[in-house]
Write a structure and sequence with these properties.
Two copies of one chain form a homodimer. Chain A is α/β, with parallel strands linked by helices. Helices cover 45% and strands 13% of the residues of chain A. In chain A, the strands form three sheets. Chain A has a six-stranded parallel beta sheet with strand order 2-1-3-4-5-11, with helices on both faces. A four-stranded parallel beta sheet of chain A has the order 7-6-8-9. In chain A, strand 6, helix 9 and strand 7 (222-224) form a beta-alpha-beta unit. Chain A is elongated. At the A-B interface, helix 4, helix 5, strand 2, helix 6 and helix 10 of A face helix 4, helix 5, strand 2, helix 6 and helix 10 of B. Strand 2 (98-103) of chain A pairs antiparallel with strand 2 of chain B. Chain A binds a DNA duplex through residues 10-12, 20-27, 29-30, 34-36, 39, 54-55, 57-64.
Chain lengths: 341, 341
Amino acid sequence: MVDEAEKQPTQLDIARKAGVSTATVSRVLNGSPLVKPALRARVEAVIEQLGYYPHAAARALASNRTFTLGAVVPTLNNAIFAACTNAFEREIQASNYTLLLAVSNYDLGAEEVLVRRLLERGVEGLLLIGNAHSEAVYELLARTRTNYVNTWAWEPQLQLPNIGFSNRRAGAALADHLVGLGHRRIGLVSGIAEGNDRVRERAIGVRERLAAHGLALEEAATTEIRYSVREGRRVLGEFVEAGTLPTALICGNDVIALGVLLEAMERKIPVPEALSITGFDNLPLTEHIRPALTTIDVPASAMGHLAARAILSAIGDGVPVASRELEAPLLVRETTAPPAA
Amino acid sequence: MVDEAEKQPTQLDIARKAGVSTATVSRVLNGSPLVKPALRARVEAVIEQLGYYPHAAARALASNRTFTLGAVVPTLNNAIFAACTNAFEREIQASNYTLLLAVSNYDLGAEEVLVRRLLERGVEGLLLIGNAHSEAVYELLARTRTNYVNTWAWEPQLQLPNIGFSNRRAGAALADHLVGLGHRRIGLVSGIAEGNDRVRERAIGVRERLAAHGLALEEAATTEIRYSVREGRRVLGEFVEAGTLPTALICGNDVIALGVLLEAMERKIPVPEALSITGFDNLPLTEHIRPALTTIDVPASAMGHLAARAILSAIGDGVPVASRELEAPLLVRETTAPPAA
DNA sequence: TTGAAAGCGCTAACAA
DNA sequence: TTGTTAGCGCTTTCAA
């Protein structure tokens, strides 16, 4: 019955014990220069003694600042988004900001309610993935004048705050590379395009370049699957059994590519001799596996860091977030080669 | 000059426009059953019209509830922690809670300030990794009566809220497996033990079982390294060149194990014939790679989900978080076999 | 250099 | 069933 909820001390407790006003306590806490050193020391001693710490909600209500930033990512079960989130958090942490994180599971509708929830929480800025978000999200962001940045994308014509790279050009680079190698029958095993503009842009890039060379994707070797090793393996098997295996397969990401590669090895299909494979992301493992995976180097951590710095300085200067294009270079390794004659 | 900061509408705005009191608006917002349907509809219409949404800080200050949970993890650049965090977020999201996430980078001192920061933010519960936290953290948690749970650990004698598995027993299982196979010269390539009780516990488990069999770790093949493929490769190379390679290597996690495995393959050291290798975590890839990795199946997502449910129900019932032990079974696959005669 | 006091937007008694 | 009102803990004028 005795719950003795001895509450957290408040500034009033500190003020009384130190014989000062709450205004002075507040000044001490906020490092105001106009508190006499002696007084400051006295107050700090009491703060220490009572184990006081500020009540963020009260502070936010009074000052209209939360020192909180938000991020909503599709998932953390993709090393690339986890890395970006990690970098973002580390960067804002250094500026005494705290991260409110939400996972949308690639669902734009869910994302909308999550963004709303973060806005209610008073986030001073937001990191989003991609440029595809619901109308409502964009309206909310505009109405509340929230600093935000769409990472993982670079589409200047959209006039959106982008810190990322051109998925379309990355897709194009992959296509050019394979065509340049002499491939004519190329398939695409991409991620699920629904609600994912990065996937769509990459596919457009691939198709455009193929078309420019008078080619087209092998539709019988083109499909969308979830990002998983198992799915990659399954698809490779299906292509083989259906007799639709092309000479090159562009995979939506490294995880899929790894699945395709491992299944090919299991089936004694020589890679890259009989089948060229490309990935996307440049996961740490891809350079160590044999054959090493040809892939696109996605600057995941850099996007996280830069997005944080951009938002933080936008908040500081009161200016809009500055866009910035990053490189996502093609890394030619061992899974791509000219097709067997 | 014209910044026209047309502020967010407040309950007062809604109340006036709807011709009711703010109390009624509050009731509508909180789904109080004692608001007449007609009135409710009128208020909701105005809310919709003005695009109003509640101010979480004000709400928190008045109600003393934040609907926020915190998590501080060592890093997100480890798929296993990312998976746990992902599961935790998904679970609390479903209960309308929001996640405050902080990354400690395996630094207990840093963790302390982060926990403090989350507490200031008013988190109603906290997910932590492991049982090793600073005194100050435990004091803070006790004093504020914050619901928290240490995942990734199961040490009932410590009387701490644990939802996890016994790292020591997992280490023991690995040792038993290898000894049972006939290995006598066993090395350990663990993660950095500093500030990481999981690593220490696993090592203890290994050493204990080895001792029980009258054996000891090959110290010349035992070391601590960062969790990276590259590091794993480097270490394998060093052991080979120093001529200290044992017949089996217990690796701190799958990433290290993969590095060791790939380097062994590169050097034409037959695995498992000449060298048995074990990992830890059961990353999705490990079952697909050849030879498939013998490892410990860590219930990362389950810990995230269960921790969330435990904290949420502790908050609901006002009772302490219930501990729970999970299995972390040994998965014997293809990288372990009897040592060559 | 310090203090008094008025809110910030909301919830929750308490009244009606 | 609805309204009135007193805070929640803090910041921030404004005075002193």
